Amino acid sequence: MHTFIHTRYSTHPEDAKHYDTAKLREQFLIERLFVSNEIHGIYTLNDRLIVGGIHPVDMAINLETVDQLKSTYFLERREIGLINVGAETDIEVDGTRYTLGHKEALYVGQGSQKVIFYPSSSGESYIYFNSAPAHKAYPTKKVGLDDAEVVTLGALENSNHRTIYKLLVNSVVETCQLQMGMTLLKPGSVWNTMPAHTHDRRMEAYFYFDLEEDQAVCHYMGQPDETRHIWMKKHQAVISPPWSIHSGAGTSNYTFIWGMAGENLDYGDMDIVAPTDLK
């Protein structure tokens, strides 16, 4: 067995108001995603998204079903989005092999039975994934940065000049409910997702990388009038419930992957919160 998924339950916003730092981190932060020759993740009951990491070092790893799913194989009733955050690596889906370069993505649809992750020649294969329940089978599709829908937002004078790569969204690839993309902050910019927003129709997860070992990101969450923060390092992820804002500021620029699941596929479905209204 090389696939290990742990369950986390949903949290009511009134309860979260009373969490201390340790409880906040225990409930929402995913500290360790990459374990040698294993698949590790969290099954959150927020829209039943699975957030995880895959780190084949010197052996191929099969995507195995887990007890939470009560299925004969992992993608029997699910879809999965994979983004390579390490060295070039190969992924095999039902006999077809795909090579993913750094920051390239692969969507694998519901019904795919055999998914195998191969180590890179350097042993630096790191694959981040989100998986959501699916009601229909869509084709497996590789998406590179050149295939993405690209938007540049913000400005250096506001410390939030950034480029958004919409990789696994409905304008690029057909999915049931899963959406994933990547935001790269320009040098000198540290703020992501500002102005902040909520969206009761969807939950979200953030994964931070491209960050030096001695740098960190302060991730902000909570209801707009009752915000909290979690300090994060590279290769860590955070769960954002539908009632929570999700924004961050780093001690340097960085890259983060956002993933969503829920009611719709409308990327622009957001309830914007002005910076002056945050408390």
TrEMBL record:
Binds 1 zinc ion per subunit. Gene3D superfamilies: Jelly Rolls, pectin degrading enzyme 5-keto 4- deoxyuronate isomerase, domain 1. Belongs to the KduI family. Pathway: Glycan metabolism; pectin degradation; 2-dehydro-3-deoxy-D-gluconate from pectin: step 4/5. This is 4-deoxy-L-threo-5-hexosulose-uronate ketol-isomerase. Catalyzes the isomerization of 5-dehydro-4-deoxy-D-glucuronate to 3-deoxy-D-glycero-2,5-hexodiulosonate. One of its GO terms (molecular function) is zinc ion binding. InterPro entries: KduI, KduI/IolB_isomerase, KduI_N, RmlC-like_jellyroll, RmlC_Cupin_sf. Keywords: Isomerase, Metal-binding, Zinc. Zn(2+) binds at H197, H199, E204, H246. One of its GO terms (biological process) is D-glucuronate catabolic process. It catalyses: 5-dehydro-4-deoxy-D-glucuronate = 3-deoxy-D-glycero-2,5-hexodiulosonate. Its cofactor is Zn(2+). It is an enzyme of class 5 (isomerase). Its EC number is 5.3.1.17. It comes from the Bacteria. It comes from Anditalea andensis. Signal peptide: none annotated.
